[in-house]
Each structure stands twice: as C-alpha cells, then as structure tokens.
Amino acid sequence: MKGDAKERCKAVVVLSGGQDSAICLALAVRKHGAGRVAAITFNYGQRHALETKYAKALARHFGVARHKIVRLDFYRHLTRNALLDDGIPIARAAGAPCPTTVVEGRNALFLLAAGIWAKELGAKEIYTGVSQTDYSGYPDCRAGFIKAQQRTMRLAMEWPFKIVTPFMNMTKAEEWALADRLGILELVKEQTLTCYNGIPGAGCGNCPACKLRNAGLRAYESSLSAPMARTM
Ligand code: ZN
Predict the structure, then answer these.
(1) CATH code where residue 176 lies
(2) How much distance in Å is there from the Cα of 212 to the middle of ligand 1?
(3) Residue 204 CA to ligand 1 centre (angstroms)
(4) Cα 201 to ligand 1 centre (Å)
(5) Which of 123, 102, 103 is CA-nearest to residue 39?
(6) Cβ-based neighbours of 178, under 8 Å, separated by 6 or more
(7) How remote is the CA of residue 9 from the centroid of ligand 1, in Å?
C-alpha cells in the first residue's frame, strides 16, 4: 500500500518531556522530517504526571506524525524508589552508587517497548537522551548497556535496530549549546520538565536533576560571555 506507515516512519523517540528527550526529538525531526518521526512517552507511575503533559506539548510543537502514551502501571508493584513513591526522600546515601531516584531497569524496559512499536511502524532508529558524562550513576545510562540492549533487541526481534544516543558523551553544557544551535534554547529552557519535584523550566533548583540542568546552562551561558572563548 502506498503511503503505508511501514514505509514512512524512520525513528521513534523516547520522549519524557524533559530537556534531553526534547533535544532528541528536535534532532530526529531535523534528520527525517516530522512526518517520519514518532514519539513514545511512558507513564510508569512517576510522581509527576505533569511530565506527560509536557511530552504531549513537545510532540505537538514539533508536529510529529504519531505520539503514543503507554501506561506501565505494573512498575510500582515491582520496585520502590523516590520517583515512584512520595514517601521516599530524593537523596544519595553515603557510598551508594546511585541516588534514590534510580528506577531499576527503566531504560531497558523503555527501549524494548519503543522497539516493539518501532518495528511495527517499520522504523529502525530509536532515540534516547541518556548520557554517561553528566549522569547520576544510573547503570542503564552507559554506552556498554546501550550496545548490549541494541544487540539484545536485534536478536529478540530480528530487526536492525539502531539505538541513537546523541548525548552519550556530551556534558550538559554541550547539550545546551546544541539546543542553541538548533534554535530551541528558549523552548527547552521554558517548555520542558526535568525537576524531580515536578516544577517546569528551571525547576526547584535543589534536586539533583535541577542542579545538573542548571549548572550546565550556567556553564554554557558563561562560555558565551567569555570574550576569549568567542574569539577562539
Ligand atoms: Zn528540581
């Protein structure tokens, strides 16, 4: 059939409504055109359902052909952490590898689910905004995991998946610079939600997600005002 979805879709973007996934979406749209990009958002019982609203608005803003919101209600029955449970404070215990916000297996599950839909749509690329540079110690943000997951998914579904991770080796400051080059700096600053306390834009300023985001933005903005850097 002409115009079949299986011919048209090129990439599925895992879209959380945060800064990283917003920039991923912009990159996928720039490469393939909005009509060939799909976005998928997971509602897994995270504290802030508001994320879904931001994801929807971003999908609309970029005009992607499809946006699916998938509920993973079972998550909270399997594991406890600060993102799923208001009763657990957001913190990192002394000596702990990750803060209490780690959601075990989240990226493996999200990528697998995105892959199932991608194959259905005929898309091979899956975009995810993970980074091993400025990360919080989450094991499923590292390149080794992504490589293994891609192989697992290829074997599981016999489909040539390519997991695209534009920020894997970028600092947050470099990511802000990229947003600026793409012409979406203000959009990402104002219309995304990264904060663990559910406050959009610059957020609460105190949680680990805000600290990372805001420190990166300050570093990027101060690099703009440094005259030496500009003439380099
Ligand atoms: Zn915050």
Answers:
(1) 3.40.50.620
(2) 10
(3) 4
(4) 9
(5) 123
(6) 23, 166, 170
(7) 35
Cβ burial of 74 (10 Å; 0-12, 13-18, 19+) is: exposed
Q: How far is the CA of 198 from the centre of ligand 1 (A)?
A: 7
Q: Answer yes or no: are the C-beta atoms of 40 and 56 closer than 8 Å.
A: no
Residue that is written with structure tokens 């080794």 in the block: 144
Range of the domain at 120: 3-231
Strand-by-strand arrangement of the 66-71 sheet: 66-71, 37-43, 11-14, 125-127, 162-164
> In whole angstroms, what is the distance from residue 109 CA to residue 29 CA?
24
Which residues in the chain land under pLDDT 50? 1-3, 5-6, 231-232
Nearest to 17 by CA among 41, 34, 36: 41
Q: Domain total for the chain?
A: 1
Q: Measure 215 CA to ligand 1 centroid, in angstroms.
A: 12
Distances (CA, A) of 89 to 49, 86, 102, 193: 18, 7, 12, 19
205 C-alpha to center of ligand 1: Å?
5
Q: Is the pTM of this model over 0.85?
A: yes
How long is the chain?
232
pLDDT in tens, 49-96: 788 999 999 999 999 999 999 998 888 788 776 666 677 766 666 666
**Residue owning tokens 């991770």:** 165
Distance (Å) of CA 164 to CA 83, 88, 111, 204: 25, 33, 11, 30
